[in-house]
Amino acid sequence: MHLAYPAVLAVLLFCVGLYGVLARRNAILVLMSVELMLNAVNLNLVAFDVWLRDTLHAGQALTLFTITIAAAEIGIGLAIVLLVHRNRGTSDVDQLTDLADTGTEPGPVHFGGPGSASIAPGTDNPDETTADQALPARGQTA
Amino acid sequence: MNLAAAHPGFLSPTGVEVAFVLVGLATLGAALLTVTTRQLVHAALWLVVALGGLAVEYLLLTAEFIAWVQVLIYVGSVVVLLLFGLMLTKAPIGRSPDADSGNRWVALAVAVAAAGTLVWVVVDAFRTTWIDLGGPAQGSTEVTGAILFRHWVLPFEALSVLLLAALVGAIVLSKRTGRER
């Protein structure tokens, strides 16, 4: 088999995943795209391992390690997404802009001030009032 | 020139290559649907097709053990975890108009540029490279087990500790503490 086939397939899968990471808005869909990118790398590792006939089979061992690390990553990532969704009422990565540098507002963001409107949770969330009240309280104690 | 003349041509593909290209096209289509569909649950189900197709590609590359690990871990657990995540974050069933963010055209430009560059580089570099799939299987369970527990034992054990730490961390992160509610 030509090495070009698996290599090109891996490149295309990686770029599809890249598009998904950049274009998707839901954090879980971003995680799915990251999985696609990791799988593209795995395909490359296996193809090159089979081509080189490595006696240590480093490519296949690394593929197994990558699969394990991807499982750990998806566990931690989903826990973080669930935590964010519980606290903010949204898993929309476009709205999670606490650490963004907007360029218009110098200095730190003041909790409870006008800046806190941008991190208010979505309107369809029953926890909205509790989250809204929790944010200024957290700012005062900090 | 000698190298190019000596290697098998692209115009007379072997059976394995035909199967690889067909499964690869299905995998790529499923991956494209995963990142473009507006129905969030369908994205997870198309991801199953893409990952299963990759498992078949591993089988065609004679990496048998990795193919079954792929089916067990990715198709079996990661996708189920993603589906649970979609449910627990109250993802809408059916079409959601805001699945894509506003910068999708920039993302498309970046992805197409990266794909063009990388495909050009890879094809230019490996145009004449031939994988010899004959002989004993490179990735049978016996071979993989032997190398994993002969040469890679220490990374393997370190990785198990890492996985344990990550899963304990995930439990701690997602556990509700008593004072929150």
TrEMBL record, chain A:
It comes from the Bacteria. One of its GO terms (molecular function) is oxidoreductase activity. Gene3D superfamilies: 1.10.287.3510. It is an enzyme of class 7 (translocase). Keywords: Cell membrane, Membrane, NAD, Oxidoreductase, Quinone, Translocase, Transmembrane, Transmembrane helix, Transport. It is a multi-pass membrane protein. It is found in: Cell membrane; Membrane. It holds the Pfam family Oxidored_q2. It catalyses: a quinone + NADH + 5 H(+)(in) = a quinol + NAD(+) + 4 H(+)(out). The chain crosses the membrane at residues 61-84. Its EC number is 7.1.1.-. Residues 95-142 are annotated as: Disordered. NDH-1 shuttles electrons from NADH, via FMN and iron-sulfur (Fe-S) centers, to quinones in the respiratory chain. The immediate electron acceptor for the enzyme in this species is believed to be a menaquinone. Couples the redox reaction to proton translocation (for every two electrons transferred, four hydrogen ions are translocated across the cytoplasmic membrane), and thus conserves the redox energy in a proton gradient. PANTHER family: NADH-UBIQUINONE OXIDOREDUCTASE CHAIN 4L, NADH-UBIQUINONE OXIDOREDUCTASE SUBUNIT ND4L. NDH-1 is composed of 14 different subunits. Subunits NuoA, H, J, K, L, M, N constitute the membrane sector of the complex. Belongs to the complex I subunit 4L family. This is NADH-quinone oxidoreductase subunit K. It comes from Streptantibioticus parmotrematis. The lineage of its organism: Bacteria, Bacillati, Actinomycetota, Actinomycetes, Kitasatosporales.
UniProtKB/TrEMBL annotation, chain B:
It holds the Pfam family Oxidored_q3. It is a multi-pass membrane protein. Its EC number is 7.1.1.-. The chain crosses the membrane at residues 18-36, 43-61, 67-93, 105-123, 152-173. It catalyses: a quinone + NADH + 5 H(+)(in) = a quinol + NAD(+) + 4 H(+)(out). GO terms for molecular function: oxidoreductase activity. It is an enzyme of class 7 (translocase). Keywords: Cell membrane, Membrane, NAD, Oxidoreductase, Quinone, Transmembrane, Transmembrane helix. It is found in: Cell membrane. NDH-1 shuttles electrons from NADH, via FMN and iron-sulfur (Fe-S) centers, to quinones in the respiratory chain. Couples the redox reaction to proton translocation (for every two electrons transferred, four hydrogen ions are translocated across the cytoplasmic membrane), and thus conserves the redox energy in a proton gradient. Belongs to the complex I subunit 6 family. This is NADH-quinone oxidoreductase subunit J.
